[in-house]
Design a protein that fits this description.
By secondary structure, this protein is α+β, with helices and mostly antiparallel strands. Helices cover 34% and strands 23% of the residues. It folds into 2 domains: 60 residues, Alpha-Beta Plaits (2-Layer Sandwich); 177 residues, Aminopeptidase.
Length: 254
């Protein structure tokens, strides 16, 4: 049985989530409350919302959990060349939190293989905008010639980042935003980026599954760590592009 949550009810223990033998593995609870306070309580316990328009709010804690460790992020030869161009070309910019709501709307409108609609409902947008207003949700946005061409958003608590969704209107624009987030994470002791669900695309970027209990053990300490100051621009990519000063010197000389 899936627990129904009233407004003030706590979440049940995550080990009560439906298991792999069910039709909805990882489903923990349902309800109608989608306040910023409810979202914050969920993320602190490794729980996230995911549902479609017309459904109640469904809360999930899958086992295993897909995560991306920043040190495992895959930078291919061709992608490294692209990041070098981004650093050199003034038309490219990476900005933080310029228009959080616009990023969410772009993610909602992005076509997804095998999906007809979106889980980013108006209620989801309102809830995450409220969380953004508290400084606990951020958007990393990629611009080209002044136009927002890609980005991502997620929740940041302490030294933990929970990725939610990405979009791209230009090839690799969302991947560039992710690279900026990874570079920021590497320099600010954010050891895990939550990806929630396993996909081949995330695996190709270095993501992997870990047991839920291992994920929750990390979350417990990471959310209590002092939060970094969230500031970044495209120069953060230098750490990914140039492994050391000699690499950069060689690039400049070319």
């Amino acid at each position: 049985m899936v627990v129904w949550l009233e407004a003030n009810d706590p979440f049940p223990p995550v080990d009560e989530a439906l298991d792999a033998s069910s039709e909805a593995p990882g489903l923990l609870a349902a309800g109608l409350d989608l306040s910023a306070q409810r979202l914050l309580a969920a993320y602190r316990q490794g729980i996230f919302p995911w549902y479609s328009q017309g459904q109640p709010v469904l809360w999930w804690s899958p086992d295993p959990r897909m995560v991306l460790r920043p040190e495992n992020f895959v930078v291919s030869h061709n992608f490294r060349k692209l990041l070098r161009r981004v650093l050199r070309d003034d038309a490219w910019e990476i900005r933080l939190d310029v228009d959080f709501a616009a990023v969410m709307q772009a993610c909602a409108q992005a076509p997804r293989r095998g999906q007809d609609g979106t889980w980013i409902t108006p209620a989801i947008v309102a809830a995450y905008r409220a969380l953004h207003g508290t400084g606990l949700a951020h958007s990393v946005e990629t611009f080209y010639d002044g136009e927002r061409v890609g980005g991502l958003y997620g929740v940041a608590i302490g030294r933990m980042f929970y990725g939610e969704s990405m979009f791209a209107k230009r090839t690799d624009a969302s991947k560039i935003a992710l690279a900026a987030l990874v570079a920021f994470a590497r320099t600010h002791a954010i050891e895990v980026i939550d990806c929630q669900q396993s996909t081949a695309h995330l695996a190709s970027l270095g993501g992997g599954e870990i047991p839920r209990q291992a994920f929750l053990a990390h979350v417990k300490t990471a959310v209590m760590a002092p939060a970094p100051v969230w500031r970044l621009d495209k120069q953060v990519l230098s750490a990914l592009v140039y492994g050391n000063a000699a690499d950069k010197a060689h690039e400049v000389s070319q």
